Amino acid sequence: MGISFFPEKKIFKLDTSASSYIFKIGAGGYVMGLYYGARLDEHDVDYLTVREGHDSTVPLSAAVDDWRFSPDTMQAEYPAYGSGDFRISAVKIKNGDGNSVTDCRYVSHRIYKGKEPIPGMPSTAGGEGEAETLELYCRDVTGAEITLVYSVYESHPVITRRAVIKNGGEAPIYVERAYSAAVDFTHPEFRLLHLWGCWGRERAVERRDLGHGITTVSSGRGASGHYHNPFAALLAPGCTEESGEAYGFNLVYSGNFSIDAEVDAFGLTRILVGINPEGFSWKLEPGEDFCTPEAVMVYSDRGEGGMSRALHRFYREHLLSEKWLKAPRPVVVNNWEATYFGFDTEKLVSIARSAAELGIDMLVVDDGWFGRRNDDTSSLGDWVANEEKLPGGLSLLAERVNALGLGLGLWFEPEMASRDSDLYRAHPEWCIRTEGRDMSIARHQYILDLSREDVRDYIVDSLSSVLSSANIEYVKWDFNRNLTEYSSSLLPSDRQGEVFHRYVLGLYEVIERLQKAFPDVLFEGCASGGGRYDPAMLHYFPQYWTSDDTDPLERIKIQYGTSIAYPACTMSCHVSASPNHQTGRRTPLRTRGDVAAAGVFGYELDPTALSDREREEVRRQIAEYKAHRRIVMEGDLYRLVPPEGNVAAWMYVTPDLEEALFTYVRMRTMIAPVSFVRLAGLDPDRTYTDGDGRRYLGSTLMRAGLNLTGSRRDGESVTVYLKAEPQ
Ligand code: DGJ
After folding, report:
1. pLDDT for 86-108, tens place per residue?
2. Closest CA to 553 of 357, 714, 379, 724
3. Are residues 224 and 350 in the same domain?
4. With the C-alpha atoms ordered 261, 544, 536, 319, is the resulting torsion angle positive or negative?
5. How far is ligand 1, taken at its centre, from the CA of residue 367, in Å?
6. Considering 520, 545, 570, which residue would you say is the last residue of a domain?
7. pLDDT tens by residue, 270-317
8. What is the 528 CA–ligand 1 centroid distance (Å)?
9. From the candidates 72, 449, 478, 534, which is the catalytic residue?
10. Staple partner for 724: which of 133, 137, 224, 686, CB 3.0–4.6 Å?
11. Binning pLDDT at 50, 70 and 90, where does residue 267 land?
């Protein structure tokens, strides 16, 4: 188990619960990949490196050992720029002489139990009994030291990777590319699965053949963003939802990222995962080092579904906050779509009163409670309650809401300053801009320069003073624009390429300081809906607003795409009003509830506007959600029918296979439909009972399925709770 080193052939073998990852130190100290895939029982697969008949450049020192070797055709563990590997490189360092030729040759290594955190950045955790780590020390002739760090998990099919680059020379150097992970596969014909989107349509799933050349999914927006997610998977030929091989790659990072796949002329597929090199450069003085963020690699031979379930389990156990995993999350009502900016204390209290009668636990006051903010043109950064709307301030509001039995949550957009704000008037230099250039504005706001210590202190101090002024138990942390004209007034000219990454490090520091000061506050992430939904944010924010699009038929697709990488316990999902504010579509309240119950459940509507019948239905929804939420929060997800046709269906099964929750949605009306859905993940030998007392054998449900035949209109849904009978 774990990490083995075989000195006679200088081979490293990294074994997880289901995969093996093998590489060796070859001629001239080159670190050469050999294999990544299903577990192998032996390490000596050296024969895989032979590349007869391909003439290409060979560094002289390596050629002395083996003329058949060339960096151009080898499987490189960390491909370096400019030394004979002409494919896309993982590392490129401009040295003191001004050239960027880089090389990465093995020097030594260390293997230890457990896993160390990355200074200043979130990463997955692994105790001594859970993970083992290999640090591989490599060197470039200029003195740059490159450490490749691999951690391997015993009970997950997961390897994490990152790199540390240290200036061991005597002149300053500039890191121009530093990916977190690189893998070269010998298998050809992968398809690439990635998650793309935009506002209101986040994480749509795309699968496409990888042709020759380079395919990239990336962000250059200063945030991981809506448009591409820092996740991609390589699907082997024949991979389906429940069978075949899938390799998932996820970057634990919230800034500019790039995932690049290159298929070369010989059919080798290279994948790189890391910080986007575009606009990036990091100066290292002698003795200084640079740490990349962590990449997570997951292997499944049970298709995309197996890959997702493995990642979900891994993130629940090793990335997300343990505290919020165990504690039941509050069912919230958020007033954004109920009131937008038009509210006052009386309106909020009436919402809370009505919500209390329904079983809701928390009122979240969204945008508009501070400064002079009555629309989106002003006041971001002026984090002081608006006494005209909230006479007596937040403390009185909290008292009144608490007296009704609800907690109070508050919206912030801490990284921003409105152009019309006291903050911007006092400190225009705190915003990201480039002197002498037009300053782009979005939603009337600028973005604060979180690479500056004074800005970070301001955010921590101003939010802390609000959070200690009243009983605030929940924070919704929003982020509604991207970085432009990025440069920082405090950094010298040869460090301006550091701004994007310094921004992200500054963001992590601010969140950490606030969470340390307010450990009992639950933070929900948000970025114009579900932008910046990445593992690093999830490390801090155990739940994330999945999308501003709450139309259940659209949300199914967004939640389906999100579930490819991220577990249900991170997806904040609300029931909103019908017709829906984004799409204008009318849908049944039951369906809105069934779809929202596939994540962290809440409401995004005015409960005082509900009819008596709707209130009855909402009461039932909340009671059922609370009764069954453990299945969704801790269970395994089976995506039974993807939301691509007339029907969508999914189910969650508890790890002990005792309980399951199945949901079926008719996306489009069919006349006289005949519809059977086979379930998955149950114990074939146990008898399960549904809510009506009907008994089924697990194997029957998985082989013959449930019969969902019957006329249902557009958007109608069915949820079935299954409980195994005692053995
Ligand atoms: C964007 C978020 O996604 C919404 O939920 C809401 O909080 C608005 N911002 C408020 O401005």
Report:
1. 999 999 999 989 999 999 999 99
2. 714
3. no
4. negative
5. 7
6. 545
7. 999 999 999 999 999 999 999 999 999 999 999 999 999 999 999 999
8. 6
9. 478
10. 686
11. confident
291 vs 279: CA distance, rounded Å: 17
Tokens of 359: 């079983």
Q: Is 534 part of the annotated catalytic residue set?
A: no
| The pair of three-digit structure tokens given for residue 596, joined into one six-digit string | 């929202």
Q: Please report the pLDDT score of residue 55 as a whole number.
A: 65
What confidence tens digit (pLDDT) does each residue in 103-125 have?
999 999 999 999 999 999 999 99
Verify that 158 and 200 share a domain, yes or no. Answer: yes
Name the packing angle between helices 612-634 and 345-358 (round to 10°). 70
Q: 407 to each of 321, 352, 472, 571, 700, how far by Cα in Å?
A: 21, 9, 7, 20, 45
Same domain, 89 and 41: yes
Atom number in ligand 1 closest to CA 548: 3
**What pLDDT sits at residue 266?**
85
pLDDT exceeds cutoff 90 at 175: yes
Selecting among 140, 260, 548, 594, the annotated active-site residue is 548
Give which of 545, 451, 443, 586 is closest to 226, Cα–Cα: 545
Answer yes or no: is 703 within a domain.
yes
Say if residue 405 is in the same domain as residue 442: yes
Measured in angstroms, how far is the CA atom of residue 478 from the centroid of ligand 1? 7
What's the average model confidence in pLDDT over 162-189?
Answer: 95
Task: Tell me the residue range of the domain where 95 lies.
Answer: 3-318
- Residues 301 and 337 reside in one and the same domain: no
Q: Are residues 482 and 540 in the same domain?
A: yes
